[in-house]
Backbone:
């Protein structure tokens, strides 16, 4: 599914180029993914659950695909650490394992793709060290 999402995003970017508002890319990406048979939700509320209380603080994920993949769209000069933190926060609060932060303002979209993951075991993400023998 990730491959389809990236392929569709790149196709849209090639057609329209960089620099439009995020909402334009969101609408078109959602439409193209639906045409490929995927279930797409836009502007999905992201709630905070804490000690059996649910807070609705107005967070919204741009796109959720097949209730598995979260997509956060940007059209900014440069993706900053806060954009990555936003995507990671949404992943953690929703429990989704995979997300993409896509910055459509890059001249080549492949330079604006950030893959984000949630709850990877540290052993999988930590570099392997020699045993010291």
Residues:
């Amino acid at each position: 599914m990730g491959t389809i999402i990236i392929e569709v995003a790149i196709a849209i970017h090639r057609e329209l180029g960089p620099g439009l508002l995020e909402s334009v890319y969101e609408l078109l990406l959602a439409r193209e993914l639906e045409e490929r048979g995927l279930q797409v939700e836009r502007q999905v509320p992201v709630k905070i659950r804490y000690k059996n209380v649910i807070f609705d603080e107005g967070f919204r994920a741009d796109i959720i695909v097949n209730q598995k993949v979260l997509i956060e769209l940007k059209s900014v000069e440069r993706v900053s650490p806060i954009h990555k933190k936003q995507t990671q926060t949404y992943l953690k609060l929703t429990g989704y394992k995979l997300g993409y932060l896509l910055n459509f303002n890059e001249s080549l979209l492949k330079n604006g793709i950030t893959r984000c993951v949630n709850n990877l075991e540290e052993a999988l993400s930590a570099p392997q060290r020699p045993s010291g023998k």
